[in-house]
Protein 1
Amino acid sequence: FKKTLRKNLCSIYFIAFNIANFAYICASLIPLIIDSGYDIDPSRFNLILCRSRLDAIVLFNCLSAFYLILASIDQILVTSRNARTRQRSTQRLVYTCIIGGTLFWSLFHIHALICSTPQQISPNTYLCYYQPGFHVAFVCSYALIKEPSSLLLMVICGLWAKKNIRSTTRRVGVAVDVSVTKTDGASTENSAASKDRQMVLMLL
């Protein structure tokens, strides 16, 4: 069963999600721990490190949610009752979405490489953050829109995929009642639905 899940195209999105999460931890939490424990943070005084770290934090934070949304959409395609819709979930589409989406969000967040700088917030205390003014207002507005919309999209896609699985399960049950000769086919469909259900539960 685990081998089957690894072959599922949705697992590629999970791999990308885990890589983005790991990169986010390396860019945000590890420097924070080192700074708190040893008072070492080169990004406070180095402009290049400051901008690179801030860009990595906002980028990988966005990509984590983005990959989960893609995985949720993929499960909608896979669990659809329409055969043509299911066929749209291909390995080529998965890699295209991941690469294309990563490039798009990298370009979108390039402003962090331009409009951020170490700022003194108190004597002997510096913080790498966006330049005050319009840019801070833009980033705050973007965050207020991104966080709830990402959560809402994942919930909607997850419930949609769950609904597709339930309808497929009912259809398999009807097929079993109508004809005993279709038991093997129904069993295969039921097994596929079970695997899809497992993926949906992982997303939820």
Protein 2
Amino acid sequence: MYIALEGIDTAGKSTQIELLKNEYKNNILFIKEPGFTKFGTKIREIIFNDDISKKAELFLFLADRAETIEKFVKPNLHKNILTDRSVISGIAYAMEFFDFNMLVNLNKFATDGIFPEFVIILKLDKETLQYRLSQKNHDNIEKRGLDYLINIQDNMIEVCNRLEIPYLLLDASKNIEEINFRIKKVISEYMDID
């Protein structure tokens, strides 16, 4: 089973992934986008720190996704895979600038049509997002602002709906343990865990 954990910046994905790794490290392959491969680490550095065009950014994300899918997802589709970000957020971020159908086709090409089978979206309200962003330095994506990130969050839901990928929406302002409990419930329901 291939599940994606999605959410905008500061939603708590990384925190949840670390908690899940501690519990399921022997049962789930944990990956992330961008930057899971050596190649992807270089791409991540460029995307988040260099001043590049939106089109260049899109193709770098696609290159990272293609590499991760080819080297880690495809050979392990018979296993449990949990990814921190996926094609869902890739399309959600890019559809602010590019046509949805074109993005779907580019991502189908990059992934050989392998999309997550289920998505968990951590959703933040505007006030919580504003507070969390005020507590950190911003990368190039976060510098686009509060309204941009809230739109991306809505886009993630739209992408799941349009691609007909089942998803669960979780309130990311809840406490870490409650969110973790809900995610583990999904894992036990959808993944074959020994």
Protein 3
Amino acid sequence: MLKVLLDGLPRPGLAGVPAVTVVTANEAAQAAATERHLRELLGQLGAVVAGPGLVALERHLVGSHDLVDEYVARLLSVGLSEYLGERLAVGVPG
């Protein structure tokens, strides 16, 4: 479904749009590779990709609200708003 959505976007269809990668996978290596490729794809579409993305192994999805809360807190602790603001201001895609 994601491929169908992204294939329908004009280039650069996500220009300047803040984006966060969210990946679930069975193994850590698979998750890391998928997150990297998704980040590259979103960047090619012009999105401003915040990092690091949210990567969750399937075995950790039970109680995922805590996982998401921890992720958001971590992003905010590194100054996500300033990070995105600087990248949006200069128009540098992720």
Protein 4
Amino acid sequence: MENVKIKLSALWAARMLSGFLGDVLRFTDPGVMEQVWAGESPIPLTRGMLLLMAILMVIPIFMVVLSLTLKYKVNRWANMIIGIFFVVFDLIFLISLFPYGSP
């Protein structure tokens, strides 16, 4: 059982780091930061949007720890529910990028 917890924790860490990498790479594209500062980004960056983005980045961080500490049954359900949420969210986000150019 401990092996599974370590693997789940590692998967959440990989998900977290890949999200950070995606954000860094997205902001290093030429002109992206200028658009953001000018308020011309395709997705408006309001305070609510920034809060939502922060929450979405914190969830995998918590899941790294929770995957190691939760009991089996709760751990299984938490990982399934939150994992499915992130798969759906990432697919929707990926599909929404196509009108704006390459993902």
